[in-house]
Amino acid sequence: MSLYKRGNTWWVRFTAPSGERIQCSARTEDRKKAHEYHDRLKTTYWEVRKLGTKPERSWQEATVRWLKEKDYKASHNKDISILKHLDIYLGALTLSKITRDVIDAIAEAISERTSKSNANRYLALIRAILRRARDDWEWVDRIPKVRLYTVYSKRLNWLTHEQARALIKALPEHMKTIVRFALSTGLRRTNVTHLMWSQVDLERRMAWIHADQSKTRKAIAVPLNVDALNVLHEQRGKHDEWVFPYNGKPVYQVSTKAWYKALKKTGLEGFRFHDLRHTWASWHVQAGTPLNALQELGGWSSAEMVRRYAHLGANHLASYADNILEQSVPAIGTKLVQLEIVKN
Hints:
Layout: E1 3-6, E2 9-15, E3 21-25, H1 31-51, H2 59-69, H3 76-90, H4 100-113, H5 116-135, H6 161-170, H7 173-185, H8 189-193, E4 200-201, E5 206-209, E6 220-223, H9 226-235, E7 245-246, E8 249-250, H10 257-266, H11 275-286, H12 291-298, H13 303-306, H14 323-328
Antiparallel strand pairs: 1-2, 2-3, 4-5, 5-6, 7-8
């Protein structure tokens, strides 16, 4: 038997009859209870090997395997963060003990504390892991249905050119250039703040985001307009490696006290850094950039993501607006009619 402590918690470690090394938390500070857990777990693995029964797999085992198999995901660190929080609810359970009631209780607790859209991120990850455990790993035969909340799309939050200029003016110097570049390229926060000079070709007016830096895991070519080039020329000589250094290092946090102070000063409370990307896309659509071109420029994986901005550039539909006048009210034609409001 092998019991050992990590902090105040006991852990068990042994070799199963199959040769597999088993190492997991007993989730207790009581040595006697840890001993009992060790013996029960070891018996389970013996029954699996000798009697052919299916072992009881834990949620913790499932999360460890999931993270190993999904370490290529751009959202890998987000998954780790979510799973650490879910461990409060599911860490002590085997997969067979995760029922619809358990999941509903988790959804309610998270949605009350944050929002339904945030709860959906937790629920979607639970569902994905349970499905993998059933369909790929064959650890369980049945899993509960995980229903996501219905969340209505919010309005896009974007700035006018005048608002953007006011925000930039209110920001500290190192943030001014970061925001200007984000508005000029539409790049996501990390792709801007961690941009390196090795990713920039000023002569060709191009920059690029490597596949492992992209959310879609596909490389993105970034044509540089005049505003973006001006920003880059201003940044030359400030650091040999990083384009936007702050005290010799990249900026890791943009939602700082200075950011919120600038938002308050300009009356833009609630505006997020990511909304700069929405602003860039909105400006493009309003200027007539086709949606298929915008999809490539922004590195979106699907056309559906870009269609969020379609309503901002419906100029191609203007010629059809008068059709009903000619068909339904021919006497009026294209003549404007002013209705009088009769007051009682």
